[in-house]
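Tutorial handout. Part one gives the primary structure; part two gives the three-dimensional structure as tokens.
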Amino acid sequence: MNQDPVLWGIHAGKTGDADALFLKNSVIALGWHQMGNLSALPSTREGFKDHYAKVYASAAKDKPGSVPTSAGQLFRFVHEMRVGDYIVYPSKRSKRVHLGRVSSDYRYDTTIEPGYPQRRSVEWLKDISRSTLSQGALYEIGSALSLFVVKNYADGFWSVIEGHHPLPLVPAAEDETLAEVSQDVDESTRDFILKVLAQETKGHPFAYFIGNLLQTMGYRVRVSPEGPDGGVDILAHKDELGFEPPIIKVQCKSTEGSVGDPQISQLYGKVSPSEFGLFVTLGYFTSQAVQFARTKSNLRLIDGDALVELVLEHYEALDSKYKGMIPLRKAYIPEPALHNDPD
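Part two.
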């Protein structure tokens, strides 16, 4: 009997270290390499749990709850996932959400990334920006598990897979299930900030936001008027008139994709030896751009992750209109015991 395809979510390790394996080699993978070839185990959950408890005896003793959770993820990857099921993979590297179709059965493969030997092939279909997804969907794919089924917000992802737009943004205040679908508060907060900035400060307004952020750091700023800016959106300086060094020339890009070496070089061409260049983007920089900046002592790159850190650090001093745009509040939360891939 044919079964409807399942929509699975997967992570590429705690820090996204298997990202290249996933995207360049068209596979999805789990770690737990000490478990060996999982096809040699009994095809029951109990068999997987028994083997896990032996292999990771110390973890099983300290956190007995990790045994059924971790072994269960491995069992599902081998025996419940089917060819033709679909995958949602939120990349920590590119900040894109990749959607694909499972195209092979389980195999044990230690080539390329031996720490992630539990594998299946996947056909990547498309990728989308996090900012196009509802806040609830972002919470759900921020699961603390390495492998999970996407349920609460599956409709939005199915819509994208079928060639439609994702479901519209659901205001957090109206979304009653947010607290139930994720423990990854840091990741979801980061996604929320970047999504709001992408939607509300697209284009030149992003330069005004960055100008205000620089003001919270003690700089005086002059934002170029909208239109051709010659490659410089903001001039920042410490003195009232802008004569005394350091003078910082800032280029701002509100796009969420990659920024390459040509754009970085263009900004640096506007910077004299006594000045500093700063490039700020909501997205990320290519390896070539990062390498170019490393060779320049008066050039700094700030990507989406670094920008979020600055926003959180200086949030209370931001202009009230920006705090209203990005409503945040301080909260203390318990540190969850994650049942994730120990590798």
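Part three, for discussion. The two ends are 37 Å apart (CA to CA). Residues 183 and 335 are 9 Å apart (CA to CA).
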